[in-house]
Amino acid sequence: MKKNSEYYTQKAREWLLERGVTIEDIGDLVFFLQEAYVDGLTKEQCIEHIEKVLQKREVQNAIMTGIQLDRLAEQGKLDDPIQGIIERDEGLYGVDEIIALSIVNVYGSIGFTNYGYIDKKKPGVLQKLNDKNQGCHTFLDDIVGAIAAAASSRLAHSVEETE
């Protein structure tokens, strides 16, 4: 059965929400990344760009794949050694960042800078997702940061240079 893009967009949004991430949470991250660069920036503008990012099939696939892997790790359903690696969110694993970079790459090289910065700072919902007592979010924290970075990049590309 072939599913349409709206179905995948809705599923990705539902799964984010089930894991405790709202579009408004991601909007806060976009605002954090762009407020110094966009005069009069509003949360509504940030959310508008997030919505466009979420319409991309590659983004939807990354969200659903990452969340599914986090769920399986929480349930202990992965084989060792990958079970432990994902549970511990080992620094040298890197596959979680690779999935995130597939999202970041959708809107150009500025996304890499945005992603690196937000991944290092871990503001807002990213700090909550990194709390090991809140479940396994090895993939989700990077995916949420990447969505924010991609939306920030899209926003930056939409603003006219004034200098």
What would your notes on this structure say?
The protein has 163 residues and is an all-alpha fold. The protein has a single domain (5-157), classed as Orthogonal Bundle (YutG-like), CATH 1.10.3760. The protein has helices at 5-18, 23-34, 43-54, 57-74, 82-88, 95-104, 110-121, 125-129, 140-158. Helix 4 packs antiparallel against helix 6 (95-104). The longest helix is centred in the C-terminal third of the chain and has 19 residues, at 140-158. It is globular and about 50 Å long. The mean pLDDT is 94. InterPro entries: PgpA-like_sf, Put_PGPase, YutG/PgpA. It holds the Pfam family PgpA. Residues 38-157 form the YutG/PgpA domain.
SSE topology:
Layout (H helix, E strand, L loop, with lengths): L4 H14 L4 H12 L8 H12 L2 H18 L7 H7 L6 H10 L5 H12 L3 H5 L10 H19 L5
